[in-house]
Amino acid sequence: MRIPIKEVTPGCERAEVCGFVHEVRDLGGLVFLLVRDRTGIIQVTVPKKKVAEDVLCAVRDVSRESIVRVSGTVKAIDKAPGGRELVPESFEIISRAESPLPLDVAEKVPAELDTRLDSRFLDARRPRVAAVFHIRSVLARTIHEYLFSAGFVNITTPKIVAAATEGGTELFPIAYFEKEAFLNQSPQLYKQMMMGAGFEKVFEIGPIFRAEEHNTTKHLNEATSVDVEVSYADHHHVMALLEDLLVTLYRRVDEECRPFLDAMEIKDFSVPSCPFPRLPYDEAIAIAQKKTDEQVTYGDDIGTAAEKAIGEEMGGHYFIVDWPTAIKPYYAMPYEDDPSICKAFDLMHPRMELSSGAQRVHQYDLLVRQIQSKGLNPDNFSFYLLPFRYGMPPHAGWGLGMERLVMTMLGLSNIREAVLFPRDRHRLVP
Ligand code: AMO
Q1: Which domains does the chain have, with CATH numbers?
Q2: Which of 184, 222, 225, 330 to mutate to test the pocket of ligand 1 (most atoms within 8 A of CB)?
Q3: 87-109 as b/e, with b when 16 or more CB fall inside 10 Å?
Q4: Quick one: pLDDT at residue 167?
């Protein structure tokens, strides 16, 4: 019976392991192989004169990254990884790897990101790359645990839709029988509709599709969004939820993911503390105007240069609040005393935006007017508007970009490193 390599200790008598051939070194009378599985590495020591002929033939024949099954006796030995070695009685090549490999898994030869993504399955055999996705998995589990224990209901909303949620641009049209359809940009309309269904607290972790033309290090065409919507809540309430969740995620990674952080050589992992500063939009613009040469005007969205300048000034996570109503989507609630600004917020990491959210408009008439004011036709939103006519609780929520969270948390330079198989302007395979 195969056991995980980690479980082969110097005290074991015999063991059978399966895994990739990490390295082969022929030293004349002895052949040393390193065999690797998800849990660790073991040295397989083959004394040529003492092993059976078929074992020797297979060992001589094996190539790096082939899958092998090895069984034999375990010996304690100080110099080997884990303080033990395996001397094989049987050695079977289960699946042979061709040579040369498209990518050096041992990372002795560095590879370009494109080459790595073309052979992602090989790239992900590298511990530092695998670590990103193990940590991402811990994040997904922690988000589920956190939201379930706070009483949220997990929902799944359609990804094939008839209308844009975030405005008309950035949509991928698809062929849907005789109708026009699109890939959904956000679960926004559906999570709000579930407030109309009385669910009160919902969340979804799912794909969002954005037909962004530009190729940047922080945009994907298919991203993963953590979406939350809460009834009888305002923007303050859901900002507090978001910052507490974020700190919980950092803390969990700090506590649970040390081996993965070590594999990535991350030494200075620090957990941010709550509450994050709330920076009004006009003050953010003033900082950007002072600190960049680029033209920054009140009423514009915050561009990359401004984002960087403000991030440097703030030095940690922060919220930008009180946005001009004109540049936020129709569903953001304007302040009663000054409808030119609204109860929308962005959660920022010094490097980039991580999340957007708002208290939503829950009054039917106001919502129709806001849709019209954005130059959109309310008739195209009739399915969304319907629940607002039959009792809609006040509500608020946010959408958090999973890849941007992973990217900023782990200091990755390109968002593509935070996705197994990224979709961008030029990449549709693998
Ligand atoms: P927004 O469009 O700001 O808001 O998206 C929310 C978050 O999703 C991530 N994100 C992306 N990540 C990578 N590539 C992209 N192309 C991309 N687009 C978005 C970002 C962003 O902050 N409906 C609102 C949310 C809400 O109000 O609840 C929305 O979609 O991290």
Answers
A1: 5-95 (2.40.50.140), 121-276+316-418 (3.30.930.10)
A2: 225
A3: bbeebebeeebeeebebebeeee
A4: 63
